Amino acid sequence: MKRKAAALLAALMLLSACAAPESAVTRAPDAANAASGESLPDAVPASGSDSPARGSTPRAGLLACRYFDSREYDHYDAVSEAYETDGMPMCGVAPHHLTAGHFIAELYKTAAAARDDIETVVLAAPMHYKSANRLCTSAKDWDTAYGVLENDNELTALLCDSLGAVPDDEMTEFDHSASSHIPFIKRYLPDAKVAVLLVSSDAGRDFPAKLAELLAETAKTKNCFFAFSIDFSHYLSPDKAELHDAETLRAVTAGNTSVIEHFTNDNVDTPYCLSAFVRLSELLGAGISAAEHGNTFSIGTAPYSETRFPEGVTSYFLFLSVRQEHN
Length: 327
Prior knowledge:
With 327 residues, the chain is of the alpha/beta class. It has one domain (3-15, 32-323): 3-Layer(aba) Sandwich (Protocatechuate 4,5-dioxygenase, Chain B), CATH 3.40.830. The protein contains twelve helices and eleven strands. Strand 5 and strand 6 form a beta hairpin. Helix 2 packs across helix 3 and helix 8 crosses helix 11 (271-283). The model is unreliable at 1-8, 13-29, 31-36 and 43-56 (pLDDT under 50).
C-alpha cells in the first residue's frame, strides 16, 4: 500500500473511535437513496469536446460515453498507478465522480496488472434518475475512444433472468455512475467484455444477498472482475465527512452488512451495492482492504469554505478485494 494511502487510512481509524456527529439538517436529493430521483435530463453538458450532446448518435447501435474528455483521461492515467497485491483481485469499489477519476484508473490498472484472465467486468452502479424499474441494464456495446467495448450478452441476460433487470439503453447510457467507468475498462482491460447493472434505492432488502450469490456462482465458470461504482459521504463538511468515512471503513472491513444497509447519504450513496460488494468478497474468499481515500476538498487545491463548497463535500474510497491463491 502506498505511504500516502496508509497515512490517510490510519487517520480514519483513529477517528473511528469517536462518535459520529449529527447529520446536517439540509440535504440535496440524491437519487441513489431516494426512490423518486430525478428525470433524465433533456441535455447532458459535455465535459469536453469528445462528449456528444444528448440526441447525437455514436456509431450505429452503440452506447456513447457521454462524459468522456480525452485530456482528463490522460491526466487520470498519468497520476495513477496499479497497487501491488499479494493475490488475485476479484472485486473492487471506485467512485463515479470524475473528480476522483484517478481512483477509477487505479482500480482497473490494479486488476489488469495482477490478472491476464479477465473475460468480463461486471459493473454494478447506483441509479441516479427515476425509473419504473428497480434494476436496469443494456445489451448494447459501448463506443469508446479506445475502441468498442463489447457487451457480455450471456451475463446481461443472466442479470435479467435471475434478478429481474430490465433493458433500458437510455438510462444505462446517461447515468454517469456506469458510463464514467466504461472508458477506463476498455483502456486497461482491452480484451474484456462488460455487463452493467444499475441499482435503484428500492431494489429490496434481499437484493445484496441475491446479487452476491449470483455473481459468486458466475465466478465458478467465468473469469470475471466485479466492479462497484460507489461514492461515499455526501453533503457534509470535511471534518464530519471524515468521521462518517471512519464509520464506513469500520463496517466494511468488519463485514458488517446489517449496518451498511442502513447507511444514508452521510455514509454512502448506494448501501445495497456496498453490501453486495462485502457479501461477494466473503463468498469468493477474498479479503477487503482500503487502498485510497479522499474527498472533493482533499483531492482538490481550493481552500475549504462553506461558500466554495455550499453542498459540502463528497468522499471517495478505493476498496480492493483480493483472494489469496494457494498452490
